[in-house]
Description:
disordered N terminus, alpha/beta, six-stranded mixed sheet, four-stranded antiparallel sheet, about 35% helix
Amino acid sequence: MRQGSSPTARAGPVSRHHRPSMRGRRRQVSFEHRRESGEVGLRLPVRWSSAHRVRRAFLRSVNSSHTRTKKDTMTPALEVRGVSRTFGGPAAPVTALDGIDLTLFNGSFTAVMGPSGSGKSTLLNSVVGLEAVDSGTIRIGGREITGMNERQLAEFRRAHVGMVFQDFQLMPYLTAAENVGLPLRLAGRRVDDERVRELLEAVGLGGRADHMPSELSGGQQQRVSIARALVTGPDVILADEPTGSLDSQSAVEILDLLVSCVNNLDATVVMVTHDPAAAARAEAVVFLVDGQIDGSLVNPTADIVASRLAHLGRRVA
């Protein structure tokens, strides 16, 4: 079934040419909203030329002594329970998040959408501990982060969370390779230069490792940021409008890379976007309105997502 509004909808069988490299094991993405959960199969195509390079780089990372053991497929990559956040004083409180419940498993690609002011940015910042929550719990890879102090959160993010930003946020005085290795250096870990270069090759920049960000196009800089997000083998990759500053062709290529990371690395990607076409590349879309989850779509299409957004926009206008 191509689209659906029920979390229990299933995708059709995966063809031999699009089969993920998991030896038959079915991935799942689970949402919990009003105590509902479900499982979907894969539907997104993989460009095997780039996917093979990504997988080769990943296998080297797995063999590295600096990389954690294989992820536990039974433990959610991200688990949010009853999370609320209010800004302002008692006289004029503004509720940014209101009892958010969300569970995502390894190997899932989820888009988060909603009208302006719906709580998307607050949710993303709260998930990584950049903003404290008033109530509820957040677990990444099975570890609760809501009780951590600032130092613990910073150390945890470096090891367990990959970030991809709209404006790339590369260090302008570092080369592409140095930018990719920066999370390891900040964490006090040895930078494996060969592994860094293999990740750059995986994202199509094998010949640009020594280039400065100013010598790269916007699409190339975003590729560097994706390689940087992958270098620590994170539990979850959070992408904040990753195609927002790119032309249409570069945007397609970046989305291809994110899909390949999910299909071949068991990466868990959470992407905030305003673009229905970008959201349609995800396995599922979660909609936020006034700080609450207002349903989800599995196997979304751009038309269905755009229609749903227009409906939500009219509700809050």
